[in-house]
Amino acid sequence: MMFEYFPDNYPWSMAAVMAINSGAVLSEVDEALKPLKDIAGANDDAANEAWHKRWMMLGERSERLANEDDAAGRRISASAKYKRAAAYFMTAERMCKSDDPVRIETYKQMLDVFRKGVEREEGPVEWVEVPYKDTSLPALFYRADPGTVSGDGQPPCIIHFDGLDVMKEFLYLAGVARAYAARGISTLLIDHPGVGEALRLRDLKLFPETEVPAGAAVDYLEGRNDVDSDRIGMAGISLGGYYVPRAAGFEHRLKCAIAWGAINDYGKITRGRLEGTGTKLSVSHWEEHMNWVFGTNSAEEILEVVDRMNLAEAVPNIECPLLVVHGEGDR
Question: Which domain covers residue 2, as residue numbers?
Answer without folding.
Answer: 1-122
